[in-house]
Specification:
The strands form two sheets. A four-stranded antiparallel sheet has the order 1-2-4-3. A four-stranded antiparallel sheet has the order 5-6-8-7. The chain contains ten helices and eight strands. The chain is elongated, with a radius of gyration of 21 Å. By secondary structure, it is α+β, with helices and mostly antiparallel strands. A hairpin with a 2-residue loop joins strand 1 and strand 2. It has two domains: 123 residues, Endonuclease I-creI; 126 residues, Roll (Endonuclease I-creI). Helix 3 packs across helix 4.
Length: 268
């Protein structure tokens, strides 16, 4: 069994999660939400925290949610500990922990004053969502990168009609500073836009580069959800491509099959 840890979970939340203060009438509550197309991975996150629920939003999307001050106090905050987030979620999480949670726990504060102060916290979190922020105080670590790649990463393998092999791994984000931090972690790769108004990508492309920088990382670091099946196929392809005779008919047939498998897994 592949176990989760707080750094992986922080990376995954930085990619696919969100912190908020929800309101139901005059009632406030802290919220952690994670959206994904892999429900089994969300159930693993639920098991990691020991709280929350997983629900289906539509045919290809599920949500993990925890929306309770008591559960934040008992489960979410102790489990995350001091695992640093790298995006604006660090700021949002600190508002919940340092400003909102004391208000939830202190029953001596008059209700009107408590609601007023919680509304200030809510507005801070809401106004922070479009801020491009990267946590400059803490370097990223391997587990965080694995979690973030699980959320935002992409494996690509294809063969042209002329039987040339194109292989890459990519991470999509709007936050250029974060992608540059990931680029520094790998020590290679490009950060670029694929068109005006579109998201940015960090990518490592080409057989030599992917074998040098990606193969050791993805051999060492299994992913936790269904994307791990893509990783296994991707690593098999890289092992073939690392051979001098990879362009013979047998190996190209294997690579073509692996490319089809990666697409099929992604579309499940």
């Amino acid at each position: 069994m592949i176990l989760l840890n707080s750094n992986w979970v922080a990376g995954f939340i930085d990619g696919d999660g969100s912190f908020a203060l929800d309101t139901v009438g005059t009632f406030y509550r802290p919220s952690l939400s994670i959206s994904q197309d892999d429900p089994q991975l969300l159930y693993k996150i639920k098991k990691f925290f020991g709280c929350g629920s997983v629900t289906q939003k539509n045919a290809r999307s599920w949500h993990y949610r925890c929306r309770s001050a008591e559960q934040f106090k008992k489960y979410i905050i102790p489990k995350l500990g001091k695992a640093p987030f790298q995006t604006v979620k660090q700021y949002q999480y600190e508002i919940i922990c340092n400003e909102a949670m004391p208000l939830f726990m202190d029953k001596s504060i008059p209700e009107r004053k408590c609601h007023s102060l919680l509304q200030v916290c809510l507005e801070k979190i809401k106004n922070s969502r479009n801020i491009v922020y990267v946590n400059s105080n803490t370097p990223i670590n391997e587990d965080w990168v694995v979690g973030f790649f699980e959320a935002e990463g992409h494996f690509s393998l294809r063969l042209s009609e002329a039987r040339y092999v194109f292989i890459s791994y990519k991470i999509t984000q709007k936050n250029k500073l974060l992608l540059e931090k990931i680029q520094n972690f790998f020590g290679f790769g490009n950060v670029h836009s694929e068109g005006e108004g579109r998201s940015l990508k960090y990518s490592v492309e080409g057989i030599e580069n992917v074998c040098r920088y990606g193969l050791p990382f993805f051999i060492k670091n299994p992913l936790k959800g269904k994307k791990n099946l893509q990783r296994v196929k991707f690593v098999k392809a890289l092992r073939i491509l690392s051979k001098e005779n990879y362009r013979n008919d047998e190996n190209l047939a294997k690579l073509s099959k692996l490319a089809d498998d990666i697409i099929k897994i992604r579309e499940r």
